[in-house]
Write a structure and sequence with these properties.
Blueprint lengths: L9 H18 L10 E10 L10 E9 L3 E10 L4 E14 L4 E2 L4 H9 L5
Antiparallel strand pairs: 1-4, 2-3, 3-4, 4-5
């Protein structure tokens, strides 16, 4: 909480990270951090409404663009009971091989998971 009794703005990025981790758990076998096949390259976040004490929120995540080595996730931080949009965001991920320390082309097997979550709206 910040001094104004709202969730601090830095927490919103943590909510996005939790959504990305949920994506990983849904589609990937992750034993170590090096097993996560991407790095975060960019974050865009628009704060629309403060999250207040007692608010229950959900973070919706989907894929909005797929390139050769990168893709975009878009997010909505939403409060269903109050019908309030707290934030919208976009992140760019780059497929990355931690063992070789370099970006790589997205393999077709991983691209299939991205296509499963693709929304074009």
């Amino acid at each position: 909480m910040d001094p104004m009794q709202r969730v601090n703005n830095a927490s919103y990025s943590a909510y996005l990270e939790l959504a990305r981790l949920h994506f990983c758990k849904k589609y990937l076998s992750i034993d170590t951090l090096e097993d996560i096949p991407f790095v975060l390259a960019r974050v865009e976040l628009d704060l629309l409404s403060s999250i207040l004490p007692g608010d229950e929120i959900e973070v919706q995540i989907w894929v909005s663009r797929i390139g050769n080595t990168s893709w975009d996730f878009e997010y909505l931080i939403w409060n269903e009971s109050r019908k309030v949009r707290h934030a919208v965001a976009k992140t760019v991920q780059v497929y990355f091989n931690y063992h070789q320390k370099s970006k790589a082309q997205i393999p077709e097997s991983f691209k299939a998971h991205l296509l499963n979550e693709l929304r074009t709206n």
